[in-house]
Design brief:
With about 725 residues, the chain is an alpha/beta fold. About 35% of the residues lie in helices and about 20% in strands. The protein contains 26 helices and 28 strands. Helix 12 packs across helix 15, helix 15 crosses helix 18 and helix 22 crosses helix 23. About 0% of the residues have low confidence. Its cofactor is Mg(2+).
Length: about 725
Amino acid sequence: GGADLPPPLAEAIVAAYGELAAAMAASGVPAAVAVRSSATAEDLPEASFAGQQETYLHVEGEAALLAACRRCYASLFTDRAIAYRQQHGFDHLEVALSIGVQRMVRSDLASSGVMFSIDTETGFRDAVLLTAAYGLGENVVQGAVNPDEWLIFKPTLEQGFAPILSRRLGSKALRMVYADPSGGDGRAVRNEAVSPEDSGRFALSDGEALTLARWACVIERHYGERRGVPTPMDIEWAKDGLSGALFILQARPETVESRRGGAVLRSWHLEPHQAEEITSGRAIGASVSSGQARVISDPGEIARFMDGDLLVTRRTDPDWEPILRKASGVVTDQGGRTCHAAIIAREMGLTAIVGTGDGTSRIGDGDTVTLSCCEGDVGHVYRGALPFRVEEQAIGNLPATRTRILINVGNPEEAFNLASIPCDGVGLARLEFIIANHIRVHPMALLQPERVATAADRAAIAELVAGYDTPSEYYVDLLSQGMARIAAAFHPRPVILRFSDFKSNEYARLLGGSAFEPAEENPMIGWRGASRYYAPAFRAAFALECQALRRVRESMGLRNVIPMIPFCRTPEEGDRVLAVMAGEGLVRGKDGLEVYVMCELPSNVIGAEAFAERFDGFSIGSNDLTQLTLGLDRDSALVADLFDERQATVKEMIRLAIRTARRCGRKIGICGQAPSDYPDFARFLVEEGIDSISLNPDAVVPTRIAIAAMEAELDAAASAGRLT
């Protein structure tokens, strides 16, 4: 660190800086630069070396520039850089370092962040994950703030659509700015608090987010062509507050998900429990870890940390890596999915929950806790060591089947993971999960807020819809994001999306719902499905579902979505629902729009020819069809022993439905529970020639193997029959 730069190198740096400074002065920009390091062992596909070497920002003047370059070279031999190379087996003397000197982008006056051209949690390659916060980017990289996030679908983005699959507002509590804006040695920065007004707004417009995502696609394609293999990228960007222009600062290969093998599908599952939730944050990965929590504020406390402990701290940087190597999990107060703790946790295979806000104050040092990231985007910290299991499923070299094997999906946050299961698409995507867990408000309470019964409900709704121009836009935005995430995960394979099928008692449990729902004696056969969609009391709410679907198809370009009408009692009801859909711009046949209907009532089976004139396909709901064929309440324990989809009359109903649909030239599948539970029932369906079977995720692989064997056996028997 005490040596001078060789004179020829120093002279070359000064000369180049003079040219850059002159060009910047001509455009009225101060001659401030960023001095960034890049080592030959950095950003390799097998090791990220994230943040090991130094970067100096807002360096101005020849003397300050030469000093920053000298410190950059010296950072090749800090304690942490030496330890990291030692761990990864790199020769210290074989590592070289170059320095890039770039025009300083004044993101201190605007925003900056990180983006990946791959989903970092699932390895899904068709998405860009973009994060943004105010000020200099160091806060995002080091996890000092909880940034805004966008998830953007690459294939239709490049076709000219605007496919924002999700948008999440971060708290962005701090803004890193220059302590001395007139220049200095690159160390003169400070954090200041962000106003509540700015925290409540996104740090980028959607248009800017889409522009950056398009650039990520270009960068990924360039590096992939250069390397000859697909190369997902980790990219830093910044927005200049003086000009408003966006800049790419650096790009490097993503080092974890892009290298993960896909032959085995591994999933974690918590066993049922009643444990207290201590705190929650962003889930990194999908694993579970239990152990003793160590609340540590400084990496110098490593002596207190035992192998397998769970690290709980405000945030991490490269100095924490010796502790992280001993940990089985990490919880941070600050940071988003692209912060240092998240990146290193993925690389090391740790369970990580970042951006809890209060983990260090709510988790006691020495407490036994469980970190769970297997429940969607939100990671939960529970008290105690909870039982969990890890399931592994081999998914390579599966046999092909004539019968299409589809999958049932409810939670959009699981869709990217489920998309790696070999299937032909989604046979049932339910809106109920999105409405109950993400939106949480009755749609009519957003359209007619004056009717909401209690002040507490009105206040809770107002908090949820804050930031939206209208309450109904909140509903359409969140619903379209949930729909789109499932559609994107399986694109271009078909996704059959069932419109909402809550019963009145279930709708009443949503925020504000009690004012809009009747008290029905038997909601299971009451005001549900199609009968709601054209009813004056609910038609405007169904229109919001149509608007969300239209946004997914037309704005996002996800035309693989096939809407499906549930509980449609008569063909005339079908006409009324199709008319409402057409009034909202969803015209059957336009732009390839197909519309399916559930086959779950005896009237659907007996009148299948009339339904086939109005709809493009059927999906058998075996639960309701069994209930209504046998005349029993499937929710009643008193008659539960009579409920059996394999009962002869139920099978006869299904046989008739399949044969009529095929005679009318319509597709017919099944999305009920029975084929997942009963191999003999699956065989019956295959023998009858059903087009598709939609299964729960855990049943897809074994059922696919079983059906391939059934089809081979049936083909052999048919061949033998022809020969004789």
